[in-house]
Amino acid sequence: xxxxxxxxxxxxxxxxxxxxxxxxxxxxxxxxxxxxxxxxxxxxxxxxxxxxxxxxxxxxxxxxxxxxxxxxxxxxxxxxxxxxxxxxxxxxxxxxxxxxxxxxxxxxxxxxxxxxxxxxxxxxxxxxxxxxxxxxxxxxxxxxxxxxxxxxxxxxxxxxxxxxxxxxxxxxxxxxxxxxxxxxxxxxxxxxxxxxxxxxxxxxxxxxxxxxxxxxxxxxxxxxxxxxxxxxxxxxxxxxxxxxxxxxxxxxxxxxxxxxxxxxxxxxxxxxxxxxxxxxxxxxxxxxxxxxxx
Length: 294
Prior knowledge:
It contains ten helices and 20 strands.
């Protein structure tokens, strides 16, 4: 179970990738993974091995007395270590290096996830169908196959959501309220997460990295969608023919095959098409004719 001692005099936990300076510290750290967690937080139900871990958790996570803001992108963090890790994204400092391939990471947890690529460990298992995955994000995306029910409905546009928080965020779109404003260009957004994503258009930051091919993305949803390229998962099913697709956009495009609806109409000759792409190709014939006539 215990990992080897590295040349930098560090001991690395092979479960989470955390690096410790002493062997006794590593042994004590392993207790976090193996010991029973009898101390539970009354607010979020998270459990801990020791009481002082619980007290520290309550003080840092649930206290609103002190926030650590990032002055580069307007995000705030409840703990200073979280801010330090976040700042590495802006400065591109990556102190955690994979001893096998030399790839560097901003924090130890990212290194821990990456190391599973070399060992082919699939730690994340679906409790319903037992499929396994290397990344938690891929498992979360896969679970949507089993979560077809959407019980929270928007009274305004009838959009449906699997959780109440999703509906609450959606209702802000209808309210027109945009309290989160970009300090660089003045553009305003409904949610803070939208503002954070927008800041990346200014900083060119791509903090979400694929553990398999190392491609980076500016948004987590883009990484999750990309992850499907490395798996055989096709979670989006056509209710007409049962065919499966990797993402919803391809599914919607496919479903046009089953309908006679032709939504895209040429303004010059009124010819109708199922796909916008076909309309654009058709429009080129008019342009060529106009050029020829002139």
